[in-house]
Design goal:
Strand order of the largest sheet of chain A: 2-1-3-4
Radius of gyration of chain A: 14 Å
Number of strands of chain A: 4
Oligomer: homodimer
Distance between the termini of chain A: 31 Å
Shape of chain A: globular
Helix content of chain A: 40-55%
Structural class of chain A: alpha/beta
Largest sheet of chain A: 4 strands, parallel
Number of helices of chain A: 5
Order of helices and strands of chain A: EHEHEHEHH
Chain lengths: ~130, ~130
């Protein structure tokens, strides 16, 4: 079982991704919003992302889902702010589209799921044609 | 220039995608929410998507961005509900991730952009690695 952190250019968009995830998920796991800055719902901040990672951190680890550009860069920076209480082998940014990745990840996140298995499943999304 | 239609499993999520798009876009073009049903903000309905397509329809055409599964299927069904006032060659579902596709599409949607050019640009998103 993994915790999820959502990092979008819009904190309100991420809130709705989390709401949808919570509506549809079968099992209970933490889904935290790592988006926004102290001043604005737009943008992101590595320190805020790091706090979200800490709150989402459970035994299996944490999967971070970002949209594009600065969301991903700030998530990478956030990893630098974690001390050794957090096993960085168990915290990874997913190479997957934000909404589709969360929906697919939520559907398979059970007691046995590892970060490696989630990454492998999400690889399939890359080659999935929608039309 | 193209109009956009957003079809997500959550109408509120799509509202926030549209809000983000409107915050960041350089040019003015219609971005309509085709998500939700008459009863619920979750799910989608081909008739509601068809109405959104009609409102988003401008000279260049309409690009439809959906998340997964029923959003895409209902968007396909919506195309059947359009009469011959709407040139179906100019209305297409994008094979792109929802949030990332809209952000990339919004950034290049100008007076000259055609549906074919947008599709070609969005293909690059498929092979873009986030990490």
């Amino acid at each position: 079982m993994l915790g999820f952190v959502i990092v979008s250019h819009s904190k309100r968009l991420a809130d709705e991704v989390i709401e949808l995830c919570n509506e549809m998920k079968k099992y209970n796991f933490p889904v935290l919003n790592g988006s926004g800055t102290d001043e604005d719902y737009l943008g992101s901040n590595p320190l805020i992302i790091a706090e979200a990672i800490k709150k989402a951190y459970i035994k299996g680890g944490v999967a971070i889902f970002g949209d594009l550009g600065s969301s991903i860069l700030n998530a990478e920076l956030a990893l630098e702010f974690l001390d050794e209480d957090y096993d960085k082998e168990k915290i990874k940014i997913m190479d997957a589209p934000l909404v589709e990745g969360v929906l697919m990840g939520m559907a398979i996140n059970d007691d046995k799921l590892t970060l490696k298995e989630l990454e492998d499943e999400l690889k399939e999304l890359k080659f999935l044609s929608k039309i």
